[in-house]
Amino acid sequence: EVVLTQSPATLSVSPGERATLSCRASQSIDTNLAWYQQRPGQAPRLLIYGSSSGATGVPARFSGSGSGTEFTLTISSLQSEDFAFYYCQQYNNWPRTFGQGTRVEIK
Amino acid sequence: EVQLVQSGAEVKKPGESLKISCKTSGYSFTSQWIGWVRQKPGKGLEWMGIIWPGDSETRYSPSFQGQVIISADRSISTAYLQWSSLKASDSAIYYCARQLGQLRAVYDLWGHGTMVTVSS
């Protein structure tokens, strides 16, 4: 099973600042990685797939990069609605797996 | 409107059986995989398994194989997740989600979640 390790566990950022979240895979997963946002009390929402492709309707301030075992989600200028949990998910191997999540909180 | 509507919250006792549902609409039910994801209270997301409603082919995570059954009824465009004997550790929110594509095994449309509470 591919283990995804997200860091940091919690990221404290001021509105308008840039946020950089990391996801490391225990083995190479090519670019088969997605990112989701989950606000409290809501279902997850797909942000990025294929490591860097934006999902429909996702603002341009969200971008993804990486391949192999190292991946990054960048939020260029944090808005109030971006304070939430973020999860990465790999779909290169069975079973599909999620990272443990990063909480982005207001500094 | 394209949507996944899940059944309501359940409160059950250990040992009881349960089947929760995920009714889809607005797209071709038999042409996209549907997955199930567990989220325990205050915890992260866990991938459980998926089903191809076209022929009910399923794939499970080893962590959930033998613990749950995923099924689908094409006639009413609905997927199901069921347990034969619940445990307290099954208490969680369960989400169904539509897979984006055959090769893009990511989930672009989610249900609102079904909260399952198992307590004596």
Structural notes for this entry:
The complex is a heterodimer of chains A (107) and B (120). With 107 residues, chain A is mostly beta strands. Chain A has strands at 4-7, 10-13, 19-25, 33-38, 45-49, 53-54, 62-67, 70-75, 85-90, 97-98, 102-106. In chain A, strands 2, 4, 5, 6, 9, 10 and 11 form a 7-stranded mixed beta sheet that branches. In chain A, strands 1-3-8-7 form a 4-stranded antiparallel beta sheet, with no helix packed on it. The N and C termini of chain A lie far apart (35 Å). Chain B has 120 residues and is mainly β. Chain B contains no helices and 11 strands. Chain B has strands at 3-6, 10-12, 18-25, 34-39, 45-52, 57-60, 69-73, 78-83, 92-99, 107-110, 114-118. Chain B is globular. The model of chain B has no long low-confidence stretch (mean pLDDT 96).
Distance between the termini of chain B: 40 Å
The chain pair forming the largest interface, with residue counts per chain, is: A-B, 24 and 24 residues
Instruction: Give me the number of helical elements of chain A.
Output: 0
Rg of chain B: 14 Å
Task: From the structure above, extract its key features.
heterodimer, A: 107 residues, mainly beta, 7-stranded mixed β-sheet, 4-stranded antiparallel β-sheet, 0% helix, 50% strand, B: 120 residues, 11 strands
Topology:
The complex is a heterodimer of chains A (107) and B (120).
Chain A: E1 4-7, E2 10-13, E3 19-25, E4 33-38, E5 45-49, E6 53-54, E7 62-67, E8 70-75, E9 85-90, E10 97-98, E11 102-106
Chain B: E1 3-6, E2 10-12, E3 18-25, E4 34-39, E5 45-52, E6 57-60, E7 69-73, E8 78-83, E9 92-99, E10 107-110, E11 114-118
Parallel strand pairs in B: 2-11
Antiparallel strand pairs in B: 1-3, 3-8, 4-5, 4-9, 5-6, 7-8, 9-10, 9-11
Q: Can I get a quick summary?
A:
The complex is a heterodimer of chains A (107) and B (120). With 107 residues, chain A is an all-beta fold.
